Ribosomal-protein-alanine N-acetyltransferase (Candidatus Terraquivivens tikiterensis), 149 residues
Amino acid sequence: MELTIRAFRPSDIREVCRIEKSSFKDPWPCHAFMHLYLKNPESVRVATVNGKLVGYVVVDVEERDGKKVGHVLNLAVEEGFRRTGIGRALMEAAASYVKASGASEVWLEVRESNLVARKFYRSIGFVEKGKVRGYYGDEDAIVMYKNLG
Ligand SMILES: CC(C)(COP(=O)(O)OP(=O)(O)OC[C@H]1O[C@@H](n2cnc3c(N)ncnc32)[C@H](O)[C@@H]1OP(=O)(O)O)[C@@H](O)C(=O)NCCC(=O)NCCS
């Protein structure tokens, strides 16, 4: 298996949306990916296996209380390719970008019921820092954090 992590290209949008729709009960509309990409082409990265697009991560660098922080906005790996290290590789690429942008920490929100994702994030060094009530409308978010050192 040849895994590559590379920058998103507009021609990837159909595959990204397909994975998004099959991964979430409240998927982002396709234009949300294009909007973030056009705002900052560095914010979306995709994973390919033997040339096939199998996952993506969206990360932003924001200013919070006067310091730069990374914020993971979306992450998914196609179902048949999960548990092979692709999520970890996408998050490593996102963390490298965040660090190169001058931030030393990354934050994210995850649905409280998404125990797989919470386990995944803990396995790559994130810790649970709190909860945002009603973040998803129908559910609370668990806020997770990682110091990139
Ligand atoms: C969360 C997600 C991105 C993880 O991607 P992945 O490519 O399967 O993750 P990896 O293979 O890199 O897993 C790294 C580690 O995370 C943990 N992990 C991942 N999936 C797990 C699962 N189903 N059960 C338990 N631990 C799991 C393990 O420790 C794993 O290491 P191991 O396989 O050596 O034991 C993937 O499950 C996914 O796309 N889920 C649906 C979308 C989603 O929930 N996104 C997150 C929204 S906040």
